[in-house]
Write a structure and sequence with these properties.
single chain; mainly beta; Porin; twelve-stranded antiparallel barrel; disordered N terminus
């Protein structure tokens, strides 16, 4: 893809948009296998900041997801990324299917399609992702999440194999800690640590995540999330 001033914002929005499939697992980027029950819905707002040598990209996102039955949930997200005066907007349609449910170990499949465009331009297809998800209980206090998938960047005209491994602690009361490593076969891995606070059980959840890519310059990512379940 030719270099242009808006490229960092577009690249960040591709990452923000494809991460919409994982917002049910925030503050992790690695998704879990859980699927919303039929008629159960979630609305989630996310603020993010990605900082690297090329500058700072700020993002905002809003996602609405519902269980539709048949062990399936669907979601629609709208996102915006901004670098200085340059803005990009995106829309992501995503879904998740509980393939092999289980108490100690389960498998699901998720997918997402992202459309985006610079401010004032018509949105076009930008990326598609498909993931195999696994969740496994590691005793009474820890849960393992693992993802393996493929993402196709239609703007850069290239595909990549994506992966993620996360450990989630049961927490102390309303507080839960978690950490992960994520990456693909094109870039250096990213470590991420998160804290989730269940303000009102089965209703309000707040979270914060901070991560760094494991390369020179250490691009840094900070995000805040708020989820309402109903």
């Amino acid at each position: 893809m030719p270099r242009c001033p808006v490229q960092p914002a577009l690249a960040a929005l591709i990452g923000i948009g494809l991460a919409a499939t994982a917002q049910a697992a925030r503050p992790l980027a690695t998704d879990d296998t859980g699927v919303l029950d039929k008629g159960r819905c979630e609305a989630e707002a996310v603020l993010s900041r990605d900082k690297a040598e090329g500058g700072t990209v700020r993002g905002q996102g809003l996602q609405w997801g519902c269980g539709v039955g048949g062990r399936t949930q669907l979601a629609l997200a709208v996102d915006q990324a901004r670098q200085d005066s340059l803005r990009s907007r995106g829309t992501t349609a995503s879904g998740k299917f509980a393939w092999l449910p289980g108490d100690d170990g389960s498998w699901s499949i998720s997918g997402a399609v992202l459309w985006l465009g610079a401010s004032g331009e018509r949105q076009r297809h930008a990326a598609t992702a498909l993931n195999l998800l696994h969740t496994h209980t590691l005793g009474p206090q820890f849960v393992l999440h693992a993802n393996l998938g493929h993402a196709n960047d239609a703007i850069a005209r290239r595909g990549s194999t994506t992966w993620g491994v996360a450990i989630e602690h049961a927490g102390w009361g309303p507080w839960a800690l978690m950490g992960e490593l994520t990456g693909d076969d094109l870039t250096a891995p990213l470590w991420n640590a998160g804290l989730r606070w269940t303000a009102v059980p089965d209703r309000w959840v707040l979270d914060i995540a901070y991560g760094q890519q494991m390369v020179g310059g250490r691009p840094r990512a900070l995000s805040l999330g708020l989820k309402l379940s109903f």
